[in-house]
Amino acid sequence: MAGQLIPITLTVNGTTCRSEVPPHLTLLEFLRDTLNLTGSKRCCGEGECGACTAIMNGEAVNTCLILAAEADGSDLITVEGLSAMPYGARLQQTFLDQGAVQCGFCTPGMVVAAQYLLMNNPDPTPDEIREGLSGNLCRCTGYARIVEAVMGAAGDE
Amino acid sequence: MSALHYARPESLADAIAILEQYGPGARVLNGGTDLMVRFQKMQVTPEAIVDIKRVRDMSDAIVWDGDSVTIGARVVMTRLIRDERIRRRYPALVDAASTVGSIQIRNRATLAGNICNASPAADTVPPLLVHGATVQLVGSSGSRETPLDGFFLAPGKTARAPDELLVSITIPPHRSPYGAAFGRLTRRHGVDLASINMACAIDAERAVTFAFGAVGPTPITVKDTSGALADHTVSDAQRDAALQALIARTSPISDVRASAAYRSAMLLVIGRRVLAQAQQRRADFDARE
C-alpha cells in the first residue's frame, strides 16, 4: 500500500493553505517543515512545555499533539501572525522592553499563550498570568520578567 | 515503518465499521492529548487512527434533562469548566477538569477521552464515580449504557470493546441536599499527574461516597452508609476511623511520584479536606439552588 496522503485546507495567519499530508505528520511539523513557519518550536513533543503553542479556532493548543490531517478546515494563528492580533504587537514590544527573553526558545510559545490569555481576560492579575502561562516552561526561569511583560501589555487595546 | 491509515468518518456506522475492520490495530483519536504523546514515542503503533471529531453523533453538547445531564464525547475540559450550570451543580467535576494538564491541553482534551484512556490517575474520573455517572457506548452489536463504576478493568483497559465508541456520559439527578468535592496531591502545581486524587459526595440520605485515584490499578469507589461522615458534628477521632476504614480498601504502590506509605498517609490528609468541603457544599446546596 502506497503511503496515504490526506488533502487538507486550512487558514494560517489569514492565508489559505492547501496541501497533502501523510497521516503521521504533526501540525507542528507541517508548520515548520512544509510552510517554513519556524517560530513554533519543537521541544518536549508531549504537551508539557508549550513551545509549540498556536491558536486554533480561537483556542490555544499544543501543535505537537495535533496531526496535520486533524487541522483540515481550521483557522490557525501562529507566532508569525501575532502582530496582526489585538495585543500581539504590544506583547512583542513589552517582552523586549522588560527583557523577558533569555535564550528565547520558549518565547514564541509564551507570547502566543499570553495573547490567548489577554483575549479571554484583558486585565489579569499576576496570579492569573502565572496560571495562564502555566502550560509554558522557561528553562532559563525568567518568569518574573515574563509576567511583568504580560502585565505591561494588558488593558484595553 | 508499516503503513498507517488515517480515517475521518462522518457517521457512527462508518466509524464502527473501520474499528471493526482494524480491531485492536485501530486507535480512536479524539482530543489526542494522550494518544499523540504515546504515538510519537512509539509506545503505540496503530495500523489505523480513527479521528472521530467529525462523526455527527459524537456530540460536543452538554444536554440537560431535568436535573440529569448528558455530556457528549466531544466536550473538551475547557467547555465543561466554562459551563455555568455545570459549575453550579458539579463543582467537584469542574475542580477536577481544571487540574487536567495545562490550558492548551484542556482546550483539546475531552471528558470521554479521559475516561477511555483509563489512567488510574485520571482526574475527572473520581468525581464522575461519586456522582454515579453512566457511559453510553455504541458498537457493531448495538448500543448500551453501563455504570462508570466497573468500567475500568486495569491501567489503560476499560470494558469498551475494540469496535465500540463511548458517545456520551450521563450524570443522574441528585436529591437535595447534596455536596461533593475533589482533591489531589501533586509534586508541582500545573502539568503534573496526580500522586493521589479523590472525590467525595454526600447525598440526601447522608451516605458518603469516596472515589480514589492513583492508589490502585483502577480508580475505586467506596461507600460509608453509617452516617458518621455526613456532617461535621462527629468527633475527629470518629471521622478519622471512618475514613481509615474506606482508605483500607486502596492498594497504593511506590513509583516515581510517591511512595506507597506517603500515598496512604496523604489519603487521610486530603480525605479530611475533601470531606469538609463536601460537607460545606452540602450545607450550602439549598441556599444555592
What does this structure look like?
The complex is a heterodimer of chains A (157) and B (289). By secondary structure, chain A is of the alpha+beta class. Helices cover 32% and strands 16% of the residues of chain A. Chain A has a five-stranded mixed β-sheet with strand order 2-1-5-3-4, with helices on one face. In chain A, strand 1 (6-12) and strand 2 form a beta hairpin. The mean pLDDT of chain A is 95. Chain B has 289 residues and is of the alpha+beta class. Chain B folds into three domains: 5-51, Uridine Diphospho-n-acetylenolpyruvylglucosamine Reductase, domain 2 (2-Layer Sandwich), CATH 3.30.43; 62-171, Uridine Diphospho-n-acetylenolpyruvylglucosamine Reductase, domain 3 (2-Layer Sandwich), CATH 3.30.465; 179-288, Enolase-like, domain 1 (2-Layer Sandwich), CATH 3.30.390. Chain B has a five-stranded antiparallel β-sheet with strand order 4-5-10-6-7. In chain B, strands 11-12-13-14 form a four-stranded antiparallel β-sheet. A three-stranded parallel β-sheet of chain B has the order 1-3-2, with helices on one face. In chain B, strand 2 (26-29), helix 2 (35-40) and strand 3 form a beta-alpha-beta unit. Chain B is globular. The termini of chain B are far apart. Chain A binds chain B through residues 1-4, 6, 23-24, 26, 45-48, 50, 53, 59-62, 64-67, 69-70, 72, 113, 116, 131-132, 134-136, and chain B through 3-6, 8, 29, 32-33, 36-37, 39-41, 49, 51, 53, 78, 101-105, 107-108, 189-191.
Which key features would you list for this structure?
heterodimer; A: alpha+beta; Ubiquitin-like (UB roll); DNA polymerase, domain 1; 2 domains; 5-stranded mixed β-sheet; 5 strands; B: alpha+beta; Uridine Diphospho-n-acetylenolpyruvylglucosamine Reductase, domain 2; Uridine Diphospho-n-acetylenolpyruvylglucosamine Reductase, domain 3; Enolase-like, domain 1; 5-stranded antiparallel β-sheet; 4-stranded antiparallel β-sheet; 33% helix
